[in-house]
Sequence to fold (127 residues):
Amino acid sequence: MQTEIDPRNLIGRKAFDRNGHKIGTVDEVYLDDATGAPEWAAIRTGLFSRDAFVPLEPSELVEGGLRVPFERALIKVAPDFGVGRHLSPEQELQLYHHYGLDVAPAPPPALADRDFGRLAGSGSEES
Fold:
């Protein structure tokens, strides 16, 4: 996502699909442990309080909300990994495949066993 906004400021913003239909509200933002860049957003869809993960890279901020370039129906059936935990490389791979995106490059060997997708503002850094 190409923006200077602090990822923590995404939390609470409305999220919309590519047609402008409201999906829900950004519940959490996940950062890539290797780069620190915002990578995923968990969108609270309101459907049984479920959070759906969406990639932030092809998404954009528009009129104070987050617009993701996918249909609402596809977002609502995204794999559900729960929120508040790290996304494993395998879970990220499932999400990339779900959205039909190119798979992110494999992490360097030193990072292969680390969890990815730490929460923005969690302050927990692994050494």
User: Anything to note?
Assistant: The mean pLDDT is 81.
